[in-house]
Amino acid sequence: MTTHPSIEQHPDLAEMRSRFERATTTPRAQAVETLALLTGLYLAASPWIVGFNGLTTLAVCNLITGVAYALCMGGFGSAYERTHAMAWAAIAIGAWTIVSPWIVAGNVDTTRAVVSNVICGAVALMCGLAMAGMSGTGTGRARGRGGPGPMPM
User: Fold this and answer.
1) What global pTM score does this model have?
2) For residue 58, with 0-12 CB atoms within 10 Å meaning exposed, 13-18 middle and 19 or more buried, which class applies?
3) Which of 74, 103, 113, 142 is the most buried (most CB within 10 A)?
């Protein structure tokens, strides 16, 4: 009877973890994460910063989406290998932020609210795309230089 090592000791898993660790320790990744956290905090506080807190539906929407965005993007530095898939949720939140002044119930599409949400949503979208793209950095290049191919069975 043979014993098989656990999946935790599989060479592909160890390589994937080291690749994710390298992706999050770069200055670019740290800058994107910092900008994303600041974007989420600004989005949550934007009704009171910009002055459209009287528009309660959009103010509540921005507060909820800002907190959700900051929580989504905040986990990348410490646990990227488990949280990189949440970058797609952050992209959706950024897109929602852009269109929310026209979709949220009530007359909330004032100039201040629209400009704030469109700029903040665009930054959130770009940060989410940057984080989603970081999981693919370095893949494919090692194989092009004669790196290891797929493992034989």
Assistant:
1) 0.70
2) buried
3) 113
